[in-house]
Design a protein that fits this description.
Length: 140
């Protein structure tokens, strides 16, 4: 895990976890090694935000512990269940379509070649470049 890089099936990688608003502006950014599961850092990212009515996330965030924690905050989890889950939870498909907002935010971050190709080998320099790009995205 040197320099924030972890071994994954695809090789050495990092993972950027983010929370954005309805306009696709990044609010919380967290960089972890690529072998860290999404659910392990979801609560950490969300604790930095005030509770919201809904949380829209993909199947990678489908865990009972996260769902219970969100319910305790008064937040509805709009997360589709994994196919292998024994209990298939219902979710609002109309609200789930709004997940494209975070996908567009990541796409705007990857417009910066330095971030898309991870030129920076030092984790501090890399998160600094991400923060700079996020600041520019916020104002555009």
């Amino acid at each position: 895990m040197a320099h924030g890089v972890g071994l994954t099936k695809g090789g050495r990688n990092t993972k950027l976890h983010a929370v954005c608003d309805a306009k696709g502006r990044p609010l919380v950014l967290l960089l972890t090694p690529g072998n860290v599961h999404d659910c392990k850092v979801a609560q950490l990212c969300l604790e930095a935000m005030p509770p919201s009515a809904e949380l829209v996330a993909d199947k990678g965030y489908d865990s009972l512990a996260l769902r219970e924690w969100l319910a305790g905050r008064g937040t509805q989890a709009v997360i589709p269940p994994r196919k292998s889950r024994k209990i298939q939870y219902d979710y609002d498909a109309a609200i789930y379509r709004q997940r494209n907002v975070i996908k567009r935010m990541f796409r705007r971050l990857k417009d910066w070649r330095r971030i898309a190709t991870r030129f920076d080998r030092n984790i501090k320099s890399f998160i600094g470049a991400i923060a700079l790009a996020a600041t520019v995205i916020w104002w555009l």
